[in-house]
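Re: your question about Dihydropteroate synthase

S., sorry for the slow reply, the queue was backed up all week. Below is exactly what I fed in.
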Amino acid sequence: MKLTSNNKQLDLSKPQIMGILNVTPDSFSDGGRFNQLDKAMAQVTALIKSGATIIDIGGESTRPGAQEVSLEEELQRVIPLVKAIRESSDVWISIDTSKAEVMKQSIQCGADIINDVRSLYEPDALDIVAEAGIPVCIMHMQGDPKTMQNNPKYNDVLHDVETFLTQRIDECVAAGIKRENIIIDPGFGFGKSLEHNYRLLANLERFHQYQLPILAGMSRKSMVSNALEKPTSECVIGSVVCATLAAQQGAHIIRVHDVNETQDAMRILAITQTNK
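Result:
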């Protein structure tokens, strides 16, 4: 399985690491650390050196209870960084946004993937991605970031997430997005209780039914800190274990903060799997 964008390919026969780069003041783990261009670019260099093949840039926090930012503010945070990365590297650039105009301008500046927690439901988002012809990640979320963790409920979280993804994949294809350009994300931490999250993780293999790339993002989320009863800053090992469990079940893209540690785990996993 491969992803194709901007005349290059990404081999998904082994897990690819997506390094998180939040250029925001309020993201739950690294908010405020990289909201200056020089600091952000230094982090890009560090992520690539540690083994990230994709840099996921976020200009608006989607943590539980997060407030929306204006289009102008998000563009000011994201676009200069996309330009700077593209001028200095051919690393894959992913844009974590729901706004069509941010998608459009990022794509014009060389972004390779759109990563949308709202699955292209915002106005014009479907059309922008369909016209651009680049890969897009659609994610399941119950509610919205402001309210999603206010007592989430499901009849069956696996069935409900599958029902959503099946419908949204069909809608994306009907809108002109090539099926092979769709990446799926079950949405760990987005409108899910601790039990919901670990039921999804324990059964992640089920999502291979779509024969599409699977993205798993659990890094430093509350599903880790609450399970361990530790602050986020002490959850690196727990996050890497979650990433490894996802990779064991065939996740193609692992979205993480701690790239170096996750890369080590992926190397050990690869050696183990080749010796079965």
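The CA atoms of residues 64 and 166 lie 25 Å apart. Strands lie at 2-5, 8-11, 16-22, 54-58, 92-96, 113-116, 136-139, 182-185, 215-217, 253-256.

Happy to talk it through on Thursday.
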